[in-house]
Amino acid sequence: MRRRSLSPKRQAEFDEWIQRWGIDVEGPLLDWADVFGGDGPTRRDVVLDVGFGHGESTIEMAAAEPHLHVVGVEVHTPGVVTVLDAIEHRGLDQIRVVHGDLLPFLDRVAPESLAVVRIFFPDPWTKRRNFHRRLVGPDVVAALTDRLRVGGTMHLATDIADYAQSMRQVCDAEPRLSGGAIERPDWRPLTRFEQRGLDAGRSSSDLLYTRVIPSQF
Predict the structure, then answer these.
(1) Which of 123, 146, 172, 206 is flagged as catalytic?
(2) Active site residue 172
């Protein structure tokens, strides 16, 4: 956890807002209707936004897609409080925030309950000795696919070429997924992080996969 210190005012806001809009990492299996207050056919699709960083994409995409519910997962405290601020002051009450790690939280996510999984610019761990720390590996992709409904999508993006290749190999090897590389979509916001990569001469790679095979019971 990167629980960086906040100013006293910001810390007080964080403490208040996380109680209102946060989801605990650990606990029983979640029912999205209970989490978001939806009911029956009016229930909206749920997006899992993994590692949203400073929150720019999460905020802008939620504003552009009010028909979707969003669950954002992030360990970076300033990014979490930025998203909480947007929920409070931009009326984005279709967002919920998990301040913690993805893997233990997945125990709370029911199989085939997600419409979309987004993993934009995860920590690249660029030194070869740290490649094992990269998030997008076979076990994580399998666990996320378990929770993605048939017809649901997994969208990944990175500006590290060897990570993009690794992501594609992992996703191609998951038999329940079909897809591959796509052109950068106009609707994915350009964040400060991505712009720094472009300024440094790196190009972004987007991968889009669809779950095509249901669970075998």
Answers:
(1) 123
(2) no
